[in-house]
């Protein structure tokens, strides 16, 4: 199985997308202008081999379902990918990250200033792709960036204030993951002139995004390091908002008190981290987390409706099936 929650099915669309993204970052409005390092930082992360291209593929699938021309799908796909990648540049500064997509982060390769300002430039290039679309699409993209920014700040605050629960987790997860996948659906519907589908396709993307995030959270708790390609229980070690952790805290007062005491320590002993991971499973929170993943996937497919049986939509439905299978598999591997 893949290392983390799986992505939509690839298609030849990606070949055209990669070329168009390269051209967008070579646009004369930006290429050849000083300081060149900002565009270099954009390209460094955008074309790293570890990029999953989940959001461009989802745009392609929504667009195919709505009969959008390839050019329109590519423009929206570039916007979604660059907004996402800009958020990663900024996240790595906040988190003091050193590795991203198998490469040194921009802040490690250069410095924080290059990473932050490179991310800002990337957001500008993302919005430029929407020039030929109705202005409502650009307004929605700007609102999306604002929502993602607020969610990122809430996540930072949550690491320093361990009182967060399920409601706060949901707000962070929607802003960090669900909102952008929702945009993939709503923007496609707006550009296609299908106003009656904006809410439906947005709900589909939103629920897919939450299912994707919760699956990653679940794998962090129950996955084996060899299978997931990273250290298990990283969310517990790093005090990250996580659905299974929030669920355990909300359902068991003893766990909540003990976790609060654990997280007050400067250094966490590995045996304590492992003990709390096992405790989450013993409380039944892994099984409840799986049920939540499946509920979000069911809601996504309900919103997608009849499109799941046609072009584009069938790929979204297959992605949902892959996510469901991976979430179930993570528990079966225990």
From TrEMBL:
Its cofactor is Mg(2+). The keyword Magnesium applies. Keywords: Magnesium, Metal-binding, Transferase. Pfam families: polyprenyl_synt (PF00348). GO terms for biological process: isoprenoid biosynthetic process. One of its GO terms (molecular function) is metal ion binding. It comes from the Bacteria. Belongs to the FPP/GGPP synthase family. This is Polyprenyl synthetase family protein. The lineage of its organism: Bacteria, Deltaproteobacteria, Bradymonadales, Lujinxingiaceae, Lujinxingia.
């Amino acid at each position: 199985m893949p290392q983390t929650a799986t992505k939509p099915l690839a298609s030849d669309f990606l070949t055209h997308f990669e070329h168009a993204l390269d051209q967008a970052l070579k646009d004369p409005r930006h290429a050849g202008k000083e300081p060149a390092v900002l565009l270099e930082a954009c390209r460094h992360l955008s074309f790293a081999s570890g990029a999953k291209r989940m959001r461009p593929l989802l745009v392609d699938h929504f667009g195919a379902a709505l009969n959008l021309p390839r050019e329109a799908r590519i423009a929206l796909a570039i916007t979604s990918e660059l907004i996402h990648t800009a958020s990663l540049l900024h996240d790595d500064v906040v988190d003091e990250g050193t590795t991203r997509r198998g490469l040194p982060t921009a802040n490690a390769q250069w410095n924080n200033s290059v990473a932050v300002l490179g991310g800002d430039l990337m957001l500008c290039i993302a919005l430029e792709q929407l020039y030929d679309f109705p202005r409502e699409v650009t307004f929605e993209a700007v609102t999306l960036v604002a929502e993602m920014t607020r969610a990122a700040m809430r996540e930072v605050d949550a690491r320093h204030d361990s009182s967060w629960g399920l409601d706060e987790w949901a707000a962070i997860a929607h802003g960090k993951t669900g909102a952008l996948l929702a945009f993939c659906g709503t923007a496609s519907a707006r550009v296609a002139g299908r106003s009656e589908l904006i809410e439906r396709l947005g709900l589909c993307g939103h629920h897919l995004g939450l299912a994707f995030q919760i699956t990653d959270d679940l794998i962090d708790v129950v996955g084996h390091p060899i299978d997931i390609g990273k250290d298990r229980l990283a969310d517990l070690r790093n005090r990250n908002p996580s659905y299974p952790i929030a669920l355990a805290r909300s359902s068991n007062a003893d766990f909540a008190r003990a976790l609060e005491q654990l997280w007050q320590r400067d250094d966490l002993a590995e045996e304590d981290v492992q003990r709390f991971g096992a405790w989450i499973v013993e409380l039944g929170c892994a099984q409840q987390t799986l049920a939540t993943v499946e509920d979000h996937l069911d809601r996504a497919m309900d919103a997608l409706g009849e499109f799941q049986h046609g072009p584009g939509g069938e790929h979204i439905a297959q992605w949902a099936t892959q996510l469901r299978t991976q979430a179930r598999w993570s528990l079966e591997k225990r």
